[in-house]
Design a protein that fits this description.
Layout (H helix, E strand, L loop, with lengths): L4 E8 L16 E2 L2 E2 H10 L6 E6 L4 H11 L6 E4 L4 H8 L7 E7 L7 H10 L5 E6 L5 E4 L5 E4 L6 E2 L3 E4 H7 L11 H7 L5 E4 L10 H15 L6
Parallel strand pairs: 1-4, 1-6, 4-5, 7-12
Antiparallel strand pairs: 2-3, 6-11, 7-10, 7-11, 8-9
Helix pairs in contact: 5-6
Length: 233
């Protein structure tokens, strides 16, 4: 099916306890806009239409709606309450997702993925039912044993997994018929459990997931450099 419509499920259901802020991290200001708005604007600015399904922490739902009203953000989109976990949050969104689409599932606190990467991955996802960006680890890795000992592992055998993760919508919806399991750390793990092979593709080193105050500092610096043409990364 070559002419698939495009969707993005943006997950923003977390509370951001590691940020140490009373305000959930997705609503923290990043270079003058909430982190979540910067993430959403990336998908809304692509050279083709992307339908938005936003899964949000119900505790900030009204604050988000107030911000959209005050800032003039008037795009049509589906707004869904988050669940107990990422698995449950994504499952809540699937009722708004048609068959025959390409869907990207993306962390609301990853506002630094580039438009070029999104265009590339939406195109590549036509050929793969499950496509996931990864980057190789740059630090040495050690495996910790039960007795507190550790041993070095070959880092060339490992990859760090990012979002957005891309799926044919019927594949993702079928996979989420699986009951919840603690082994589901992301959407790719749910799809893989259903028997679908996950294709890996090149991610981006600066596709940072904002989790801590230090991450906010790094994100500000990256945006500053990009806006002034100091880097294309």
């Amino acid at each position: 099916m070559a002419n698939r419509s495009r969707y993005v499920i943006v997950t923003a259901g977390g509370s951001g306890t590691r940020m140490g802020s009373s305000l959930p991290k997705q609503m923290l200001p990043l270079a003058g806009k909430p982190v979540l708005m910067r993430t959403i604007e990336l998908f809304m600015s692509l050279p083709f239409e992307v339908n938005l399904i936003l899964v949000i922490n119900k505790e900030i739902r009204q604050a988000w709606l107030d911000y959209c009203r005050d800032s003039g953000f008037d795009r049509n989109y589906y707004l869904v309450n988050g669940g107990l976990s990422r698995y449950h949050s994504v499952k809540n969104a699937l009722k708004y997702l048609p068959d025959g689409a390409i869907v990207a599932v993306h962390d609301g606190v990853r506002p630094l993925v580039t438009k070029d990467a999104l265009v590339r991955m939406f195109g590549d996802a036509l050929d793969y039912p499950a496509l996931v960006p990864v980057v190789p680890p740059v630090d040495s890795l050690r495996c910790i044993g039960e007795n507190g000992t550790s041993e070095v592992v070959d880092r060339s055998l490992y990859r760090c997994v990012q979002t957005p993760q891309f799926f044919h919508s019927e594949v993702l919806k079928r996979a989420y018929n699986e009951p919840f399991s603690p082994i589901f750390t992301d959407d790719a793990s749910v799809v893989e459990k259903s028997g679908v092979r996950v294709q890996l593709c090149e991610g981006e080193r600066f596709n940072l997931k904002i989790t801590t105050p230090e991450d906010m500092i790094m994100a500000e610096a990256i945006l500053y450099a990009r806006e002034r043409g100091l880097t294309t990364l």
